[in-house]
Amino acid sequence: MTLKIAFLSSEAPVAQTARATLIGRYGDTAPEQADVIVALGGDGFMLRTLHATQELPAPVYGMNRGTIGFLMNEYSESDLMERLHAAEKTEINPLSMRASDRSGKVHRALAINEVSILRAGPQAAKLRITVDGRLRLAELSCDGALLATPAGSTAYNYSAHGPILPIGSDVLALTAIAAFRPRRWRGALLPKTAHVRFDVLEANKRPVVADADSFQVDDVEWVEVRSEPTVSHCMLFDPGHGLEERLISEQFN
Question: Could you name the active-site residues (predicted)?
Fold first, then answer.
């Protein structure tokens, strides 16, 4: 069966060229009418595509025309239709963020990889962390902290020395970024159902920003994060190279 494909690409010249070549070979369909959406770019573009198409029924198959491409399949022009038919599905839920700035305005965003709380000035941030309404850490002095999904656990979370989480696990990673006090606190593993709240201490003196997949809120006073089970992103991967396999392989590199 011939699939109706929507080709989307980043602004990178190599991605634009690939899109033109593939459209010439397979045609192009509007995302709203497509059976499959093919994203051409890097991981950043894949995240933007997933966010932009989350209301559409078509799954997203990425081909790497960027740099790292952890969320992407290898690029090839000749056998795309066969690869799409054989592709394996992976469904992931994003995080939901609510963040209040110092003016009292509440901002909302979804994050597929992680929600990060980062210092915005020369002094360390001071955060109070509450999980499911229970105070867990009265004061964390740090460059920041983040809550990561399994899909995002190899990104910023891993660079901050957080654990890699299996894609099927109902777990979130709470990871400190350059913790100063408590110096040896490296974070925690939390159930996927956990509601995590970060309160910014001394917000006037120690400004903090919140970031959800590059959606940034400045001068935050508190941030609440939880998994969003009502939103599901469907991604396609070549057999044997799915997200679960990549997360396992990454731990042995």
Answer: 43 (proton acceptor)
Report pTM.
0.89
Q: Which amino acid is at 67?
A: T
Tell me how far apart the alpha carbons of residues 147 and 212 are, in angstroms, rounded to a whole number. 10
Q: How far apart are CA 34 and CA 110, in angstroms?
A: 24
The full set of domain ranges for the chain reads 5-92+232-250, 95-227
Catalytic residue among 43, 199, 211, 213: 43
Average pLDDT, rounded, for the chain: 94
Residue 22, CA distances (Å) to 3, 5, 41, 65, 89 in order: 13, 10, 14, 13, 22
Would the annotation count 158 as a binding residue? yes
Q: Which fold has domain 5-92+232-250?
A: Rossmann fold (3.40.50)
Q: Please indicate if the annotation marks 159 as binding a ligand.
A: yes
Query: Of 168 and 225, which is predicted with more confidence?
Result: 225
Q: Please state which architecture CATH assigns to domain 95-227.
A: Sandwich (2.60)
CB 28 within 8 A of CB 5: yes
Q: Based on the residue annotation, tell me whether 43 is a catalytic residue of this protein.
A: yes
